[in-house]
Structure of Major facilitator superfamily (MFS) profile domain-containing protein:
Amino acid sequence: MIRFLGYIAAAGGGSIFLSFYNRFEFDTFTMTVHSIIAGASTWFTTLTVGRLVDRWGDLRGIWLPGNVLLFLFGVSCALLPPGHGYLVYATWPTLAGTSFALNGVAPELLAKLIPSDLQGTYQTARSFVFRLTMAIFMWPWNQ
C-alpha cells in the first residue's frame, strides 16, 4: 500500500511541477540553483539511509518519511502563492531532496524480501503496476 501511494504521487508529480513552473516561470539559472540545492540535500540524505534503516527499520525509517515528505512537497508546490518564489529555497532542500532520496531507495528495500529466483517476476510486476498507476491517476490541474 505504501508503494502504491508513492506511485500515485509519482504519477502526478509531473503535473504538479508543471503547474508550479507555469506559476513562477523561473529562469534557467534560478532553476539550476534550485536543483543543485535539492541535489545536495538528496546526496546528504542518501548518506544517512543506512543509519535510518538500522535505527528505525525500513517502514518507519524510509517508506513512511519518504511518502509523507513527498506529499508535503506536492502540497507546498500546489499551494505556494505567486510572488513567494523565494520559499523554494527552503521547500526544495527540506522536502523535495529528502523525499526523492528516500523514495529512490525504497523499492530496493522491498526487493530484498523477494527470493532471488522470483526477482525477474517481481521487477516486471512492479514496473507494470507503476505504469498502470501513471496511466490511471493523471492529475487534472495541468490540462
Observations:
- The radius of gyration is 16 Å.
- The first helix runs from residue 2 to 24.
- Residues 2-142 form one domain.
- Residues 105 and 124 are 18 Å apart (CA to CA).
